[in-house]
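WARN retry 2 of 3 for item q-0093 after timeout on previous attempt; input resubmitted unchanged.
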Amino acid sequence: MGVVNGKKLVFFGGGDGYCYAFDSKPVKEGDSTYLKVVWKYDCNPPERKKYKYPAAEGPSEINATPVFYKNRVYVAVGQDPEHQEGVGILSCIDATKTGDITSAGKIWSCDKIHRSISTVSIDPDTGLLFVGDFSGYVHCLDAEPGKLYWTYDMKAHMWGSTLVTDGKVYCGDEDGDLVILPARRDFDPKTDKPLWETNLGSPVYSTPIVANGTLYISSNTHLFAIYDAARHAPSSDQPKVDVNRTKPGEKK
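OK item q-0093 returned
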């Protein structure tokens, strides 16, 4: 949800590849009540419509959550992971428009990304936008003009989204790798190394979350809470951490 020109709008990515903005106030007509469409935007380029779904070169639906930031909406297209990899696109839409804004409402788009089921993350301090795609690439762009600065190869499919906070980008992948990248436009994946990386032992399909100085992330088998022990002593009601990652019911 976002407030545009004093009106609360609800943003929704559809299975038809359109991103919609609905007026949050329900409208009643006869026996039915619905949300009125304020605008809609086709996120699939026209040239992809000649291919039959779910062809790798063809159109996709929207599985990611649209992100509202400074009167703009950012969203990528993708497909069910069972359809494998394919072409994608990231769109930046002018949320102040109305009606069918297929062309007039596009501020910029980036077709350098592959199919994505991930939501973008934006650093308000730098204006940098980060998004992962299903092929396993993390892209850094300028949220304002859409300039692509760099692309980092995770070398495995990405199901979850990136998290950007405190000048760092947190990413997980299907191989179980958790990687922390610098949230800088001058980072060079060809010569620079990640700030930190580890393997959590099983696939990471989730998105990292930070709360109260602690990083939370779940793998396919475990939920991890990672914090700086020197700065954040655990409270008395925190559960004890099994450092051997023993599964419930197993003997050490």
